[in-house]
Amino acid sequence: MAPSQEEVFEKVRTALVDALGVDEEEVTPEATMVGDLGAESIDFLDIVFRLEKAFGIEIPRAELFPEDILTNAEYVHDGKVTEAGIGELKKRMAFADLSKFEADPVVQNFGNLLTVSDLCRYVESKVGAAG
Predict the structure, then answer these.
(1) How would residue 111 be classed by pLDDT, with cut points 50, 70 and 90?
(2) Interatomic CA distance for residues 81 and 110, integer angstroms
(3) What is residue 64's predicted lDDT score, i.e. its pLDDT?
(4) Rounded distance between C-alpha atoms, residue 43 and residue 48, angstroms
(5) Fold of the 5-127 domain
(6) In whole angstroms, what is the distance from residue 74 CA to residue 81 CA?
(7) Nearest in space to 43 (alpha carbons), one of 34, 52, 56
C-alpha cells in the first residue's frame, strides 16, 4: 500500500535531519533545502541515498537536480535561465513551484528554490502516495 502524505513527510524529514544534522523542528514544508536547511551539493547525494533507501525507489539525479539545464548555454544567457530553460525545468520538475524562480531566474538562486514540500511531492509522485 502506498504511504500517506504524512508518512512521506515523516520519512523525508528523518532523511533530512540525518543527512544535514538539523533539528526536526527546522524541517517544515516551507523550508528551503539550501537557504533554510543549509544543504550543499554534496549533501544532496546523501539525501537522495537516504530517500531511495527509505522508500525503496530509484531517484535519477537529473530528475531531482537538473544541473544539465542550468549549465547548458542553450538554456542560460548572462547567468539567467531563458524562457526555454524555464519550460524545460517545468517539464522536468513538475513537482516544484517555480513561480518565484521564474520572476528572477538567476542561475545561482536556483538552489534556494527547492523546498521540503517540493521534495515530498517528488517522492509522492514516485511512490504513488495517497492524498
Answers:
(1) confident
(2) 9
(3) 80
(4) 9
(5) 1.10.1200
(6) 9
(7) 34
